[in-house]
Amino acid sequence: MTDSPTPSPAGPQSADTQDAEVLRERALAALLAARERTTLLTDSVDDHELIAQHSPLMSPLVWDLAHIGNQEELWLLRDVGGREAMRPDIDGLYDAFEHPRASRPSLPLLAPAEARSYAAEVRGRALDVLGSTPLGGRPLLRSGFAFGMIAQHEQQHDETMLITHQLRSGPAALRAPEPPGATDAAALPAEVLVPGGPFTMGTSTEPWALDNERPAHRREVPGFLIDTAPVTCAAYQAFIEDGGYTEQRWWAPEGWAMVREHELKAPLFWHREAGQWLRRRFGVTEPVPADEPVLHVSWYEADAYARWAGRRLPTEAEWEKAARHDPGAGRSRRYPWGDEDPTPERANLGQRHLRPAPAGAYAAGRSPSGAGQLIGDVWEWTSSDFLPYPGFAPFPYREYSEVFFGPGHKVLRGGSFAVDAVACRGTFRNWDLPVRRQIFSGFRTARDV
Fold first, then answer.
1. Threshold 0.85, pTM exceeds
2. Which of 112, 188, 226, 336 is buried most deeply by CB count within 10 Å?
3. What average pLDDT does range 47-55 have in this prediction?
């Protein structure tokens, strides 16, 4: 995901048919939930760690904190509320397109106390705007879109801050309960059939859907078989032990070059000690759990595993059909289980747990095809490049999606344990460079019928 620069006038075309007070309550709850999580992620470490850059791949946590406030000021106060700028002097500092992550520590950033104060003052004023602004008319205000967009933006930065927590050294700063186990994993088939035929991909009705999820359109997808659950650590270990990282034939040329240059031997954060695979997870070193979906693998690693297994990564359309298509009703659902919002019984989302659940968990979240854990747990790499849907229109700014379209970025779907439900739908599209490993990424495989 990327960050927001400046507003532009285009907009989604879904009509505002919901009660205004219900919309306000939904927007308020989403904004408050995001800020609660931001506070947890930034208050759990001291000021020294807030201003430190724990990896050149990530911003200092204090940059994310002030950036969250700055984007909220730009969109909700200046654009939606028509209010005078509070801190126009810092707009450039927190423009993600002006300053690469590696260079941000050298900027004259707001100190932790000032960043907290600024974000809090913006939030107070933004809630006033929410309470007084009609939710309709302008495309940006239909169904409360602007407020939903800002809640999603903050949650996306919360996910990047959680990645920074994973990259930081030192003892654990975060705690969370363990996810539920899999009650019937042994009885599940290894793969499920998704019959061929058309289905509706994307959305034109989801009120807070972002521009790259739009518009809804029909796709013809031949029948295919897809893994019932994401590929596990045990299955990936078999690939490693069979020489997966030493056999060039499994790798795309760019992936093989990456393996050789960085001497890769396993997923990020794994190491072998006394004949056992261990991993570091949020400041704790532990044995790699055999039944958990593999995490922190690049697209190249996922693709190489699939080739080794005699399979392939699913296309983005295949993934969405497996997740959303209901052949009995002849329509696409919002989520694999139906149209109801996610619950803790259906999906591992929202940093409720600090790890994926075992493969086969969340029986209540399975799709009509029988595939499970398509929402939450791990982002899943697909074989597809990040491209616009037919009829795509940028909204509310080109830099959210359009500038990233092309063969340089691969699509990930489904969210992870680090993603909040407000920023995760059956239509939600993520994208990243195929070399990325620090993200909470895994995969499942597919094959032709």
1. yes
2. 336
3. 97
Burial degree of 177 (CB within 10 A; 0-12, 13-18, 19+): exposed
Listed residue (311, 301, 291, 302) closest to 191, CA to CA: 311
Q: In terms of residue numbers, what domain contains 279?
A: 177-449
DSSP letter, residue 79 = I
Domain boundary among 125, 147, 167: 167
Regarding whether 127 and 224 lie in a shared domain, the answer is no
Count of structural domains within the chain: 2
For residue 181, report the phi and psi dihedrals to the nearest 5 degrees: -85, 180
The residue-averaged pLDDT of 65-94 equals: 97
Q: Which two tokens stand for residue 131?
A: 């309470």
pLDDT, average across residues 435-448: 98
**pLDDT bracket for residue 13 (50, 70, 90):** very low
pLDDT band at 16 (very low <50, low <70, confident <90, very high): very low
- 11: in domain: no
112 and 194 inside one domain: no
Give residue 4's pLDDT: 44
Q: How far is CA 309 from CA 105, 192, 302, 305, 441, in A?
A: 43, 16, 11, 6, 19
Q: Which residue, 389, 387, 381, 380, is CA-closest to 434?
A: 381
Mean pLDDT of 310-325: 98
* Beta-carbon contacts of residue 81 (< 8 Å; ≥ 6 apart): 125, 126, 128, 129, 133
DSSP characters over 393-440: ---S-GGGTGGG-EEEEEEEES--TTS-GGG--TT-EEEE-TT--SSS
Tokens of 268: 């990020």
Helix (H, G, I), strand (E, B) or coil at 191: strand
Residue 433 pLDDT level (bands cut at 50, 70, 90): very high
Type of residue numbered 187: A
227 and 123 within one domain: no
Confidence of residue 349 (pLDDT cuts 50, 70, 90): very high
Write down the pLDDT at residue 18. Answer: 52
User: Residue 395 maps to which CATH number?
Assistant: 3.90.1580.10
CATH of the domain at 63: 1.20.120.450
The residue among 117, 139, 167 that closes a domain is 167
Same domain, 354 and 403: yes
